[in-house]
């Protein structure tokens, strides 16, 4: 059984609109992004000294799929700082009964990970909340890391 974290939602917007929103990473995840997020290649994310990662965009299939590979990761709040390194983040877009289904899977983010609770809570907020709002309302809520960190008692040690 695949224990990797996965979530999905449905919207009325077209697969093309959903694809464009997913690739507008600054619009739903964080404005602290370096690099292009809508073409194959690398971009970097960071939040204070709490979380940094380097992401390789390995697959972009318009209206269908986006795949990110985490080439490097650092967390300051878990023992294994590199927990995400080598994992993949997959967005799958599917047309179903006149709706567009968006399925998000962080392949390799499993319950055995120390960051699992914090990370799945974060993804839930960013995917089912912010990304969905960006798609349906034209505006997401990026940069919620501080609220999430506070909620889970994660402090910036820098």
Describe this structure in words.
The chain has four helices and seven strands, in the order βααββββββαα. The protein has about 160 residues and is α+β, with helices and mostly antiparallel strands. It has a single domain, classed as START domain (Alpha-D-Glucose-1,6-Bisphosphate, Chain A, domain 4), CATH 3.30.530. It has a seven-stranded antiparallel sheet. A hairpin with a 2-residue loop joins strand 6 (about 90-95) and strand 7. The protein is globular.
- Count the domains: 1
The topology string of helices and strands comes to: EHHEEEEEEHH
What gross morphology would you assign?
A: globular
Q: Briefly note the structural class of the backbone.
A: alpha+beta
Main sheet strand line-up: 1-7-6-5-4-3-2
Q: What is the mean pLDDT? A: 95
Specify the biggest β-sheet. 7 strands, antiparallel
Supply the CATH class: Alpha Beta
CATH architecture: 2-Layer Sandwich
Work out the helix count: 4
């Amino acid at each position: 059984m695949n224990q990797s974290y996965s979530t999905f939602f449905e919207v009325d917007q077209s697969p093309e609109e959903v694809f464009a929103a997913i690739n507008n990473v600054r619009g739903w995840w964080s404005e602290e992004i370096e690099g292009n997020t809508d073409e194959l290649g690398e971009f970097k994310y960071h939040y204070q000294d709490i979380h940094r990662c380097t992401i390789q965009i390995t697959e972009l299939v318009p209206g269908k799929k986006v795949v990110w590979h985490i080439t490097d990761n650092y967390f300051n709040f878990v023992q294994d700082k590199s927990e995400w390194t080598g994992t993949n983040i997959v967005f799958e877009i599917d047309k179903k009964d006149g709706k567009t289904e968006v399925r998000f899977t962080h392949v390799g983010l499993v319950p055995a990970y120390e960051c699992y609770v914090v990370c799945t809570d974060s993804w839930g907020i960013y995917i089912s909340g912010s990304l969905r709002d960006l798609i349906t309302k034209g505006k997401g809520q990026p940069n919620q890391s501080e609220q999430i960190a506070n909620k889970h008692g994660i402090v910036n040690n820098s």
